Write the structure tokens for this entry.
Amino acid sequence: MTEHITHRIAGKPWSGPAERTGDVFDPATGAVRATVDFASPTEVDEAVRAAAAAFPGWRDTSLAGRSRVLFRFRELLAARQDELARIITAEHGKVVSDAAGEVARASRTSSTPAARRNCSRASTARTPRPGWTCTRARGRSASSA
């Protein structure tokens, strides 16, 4: 039996009937490992409406609250790095070590927006990890500041 992959809209799995589906192949064997629902314009519109409805809550979230969400995301990436690397390997055919490197890079990338919160305060604010400076978090190297 193959896995069924569907959309997530408003934080929940979509349960409608898909007009079209596609096969997801294991790149190592060529075997079908899952089926995926393709979105119609109706599902895309539904997802856009859900995102638009969620935006005011995110927009009104404090900088500290947003930073907490981004740091938690980074923690989850790190905690589940091996699992995520196996998923990338199964879906893209990469070797596990390369896929783990992608997850690690995503974790580092997610640190940058969260670090900006600390830089919006006094220049003596603590940064999220050793070696970070407020100029680096703003996208500039210390030498160009």
Residues 136-145 have pLDDT under 50 and may be disordered. Strands lie at 3-5, 8-9, 12-13, 20-25, 32-38.
